[in-house]
Amino acid sequence: MYPSTLTQLARANPFSAPLFTLQKDESILTQRRSGRRLAAASTVTTEEGDSCEYGSAKYFALCGLGGILSCGTTHTAVVPLDLVKCRIQVNPDKYKSIFNGFSVTVREDGVRGLAKGWAPTFIGYSMQGLCKFGFYEVFKVMYGNLLGEENAYLWRTSLYLAASASAEFFADIALAPMEAAKVRIQTQAGYANTLRDALPKMYAEEGLWAFYKGVVPLWMRQIPYTMMKFACFERTVEALYKFVVPKPRSECSKPEQLVVTFVAGYIAGVFCAVVSHPADSVVSVLNKEKGSSAVQVLKRLGFKGVWKGLVARIIMIGTLTALQWFIYDSVKVYFRLPRPPPPEMPESLKKKLGLTQ
């Protein structure tokens, strides 16, 4: 029998379900040099060949760079699909489906019209990626240290959720101005064709409010999305190495590890798209219209209206999320950053549960 206090703690946590993961492990952890604690409750140290210490300022800075490259490039690459998705959301009578949306756009604006909004997309999502991934690593370490090694392991999914939500709060503040400009360019015919035209026009009409009136709907959309993105990814990676990959992560080559990253990222992306789509529809309509509130838009769209464009968004977000995690992890490999394995139960917790000899 497990100690009663730990059993109660396990039952009280609906996310990590530690009762189902407490399995006897005869393997002995290899001796490691002193280092920081991983928020997921594994002991992380600087191994030979790593360019910096886990949790150092350099580590966080390079994680932020990875976020810039992963989010900025991928969102820019799918601008045509994003444009059609936004137009389906704000004008479903004209743009009836993905293929119809592409056809109408090319017929009216030419092939170049599919690239509308690429500049605010690149700038905005680069800044968002910097904050999203960089601050996620910061908050994961911070919250993990506050919880302690054993609790951080038992509550690791809750930890991922809290760290990603905190990071996205700041990431959306960085994204909001460019997102507002992007939607105006993409959905309001004749409003502006470039970011250089859109920004002064928006400021002249509504002042600074034009750039931040969509930040609350952005939080509604992006915080659940990011919580799902990070928590689902972390737990999917853990599950893949435990149940699918035929050998331990330590025996997998770097390319094999990146394949696991891509697969886990795509699975997480599908869930992200579904969770965040209603708020995404509100953001698209809100940034197109003047003087409307998020509540008014939500009431007008109704239940069916907020799900317009979901198929396009699943394709876009699934691919985006997989590529983002792949690029982000590749940046870590390139710069030789510490890449901790999936979390393992701390030795101290094993002893408390009687799982060690």
Query: CATH architecture, please?
Result: Alpha/alpha barrel
Say which CATH homologous superfamily is assigned. Mitochondrial carrier domain
- Give a count of the beta strands, DSSP E runs of length 2 or more: 0
Give me the Rg, rounded: 22 Å
Envelope shape: elongated
Helical amount: 55-70%
State the CATH topology.
Mitochondrial carrier fold
Number of helices: 14
The mean pLDDT is 83
H/E element sequence: HHHHHHHHHHHHHH
* Oligomer designation: single chain
Q: Quote the distance from N terminus to C terminus.
A: 16 Å
Which class do the helix and strand fractions yield?
Answer: mainly alpha
Strand proportion, as a percent range, falls in under 5%
Sheet with the most strands, sense and barrel status: none
Number of domains: 1
Residue windows where pLDDT falls under 50 for at least 5 positions: 1-43
Q: Please write the CATH class name.
A: Mainly Alpha
GO cellular component, one term: mitochondrial inner membrane
GO molecular function: phosphate transmembrane transporter activity
Keywords: Membrane, Mitochondrion, Mitochondrion inner membrane, Repeat, Transit peptide, Transmembrane, Transmembrane helix, Transport
Protein name: Solute carrier family 25 member 3
